[in-house]
Amino acid sequence: MMRKFRLGPFEVLEKIASGGMGDIWRGVHVTQDVPVAIKVLQRAIASDDKSGMLFRREVRAAARLDHPGIITLFDIGETSEESAIASDGALAPRSPYLVMEYLEQGSLDSLEYPLPWSETRKILIAVLDGLAHAHARGITHRDLKPGNILLAD
After folding, report:
1. What percent of the chain has pLDDT over 70?
2. 109 an active-site residue?
3. Sheet holding 35-41, edge to edge
4. Which residue, among 86, 98, 87, 11, has the nearest Cα to 52 in the 3D structure?
5. Helices in 35-97 by DSSP H: which ranges?
6. Are 142 and 104 in contact (CB under 8 A)?
7. Using an 8 Å Cβ cutoff, are 105 and 150 in contact?
8. Cα–Cα distance measured from residue 22 to residue 96, given in angstroms and rounded to the nearest whole number
9. pTM above the 0.90 mark?
10. Contact indicator for 90, 2 with CB cutoff of 8 Å
11. Of 33, 49, 66, 143, which residue is the catalytic one?
């Protein structure tokens, strides 16, 4: 079992998912006791300076979005040597990470299909509204799939 470790003001509790660019960890803001999700770029991508630069640019652009259908970003950082060691090798030093709100209901992947039309319609309208908000501000989502559509109340 992995021990808890820190990334800045966040305590990292457990890995909850892995994706094409990074791993997602469940965590908590230590002083505010706010649950968070932390996406850390995978080791191979983190070592590429261009990928790290693109990641940071996309995070800065997404942080300017304010919409109920778009996840809230709280922080961005880079893993320290100490946090990489404390993670027992799960994280590479100097890996970019972003911290966002944690939505415990999961993603569209976690739903049982087929959904009733009324539910499908609500989800589609919410997703399209969020995408329209981002597109109107020059931001394109490059990895739209059920696993990246998170569910909230």
Report:
1. 98
2. no
3. 5-7, 10-18, 22-29, 35-41, 96-101, 73-78
4. 98
5. 43-46, 49-63, 81-86
6. no
7. yes
8. 10
9. no
10. yes
11. 143
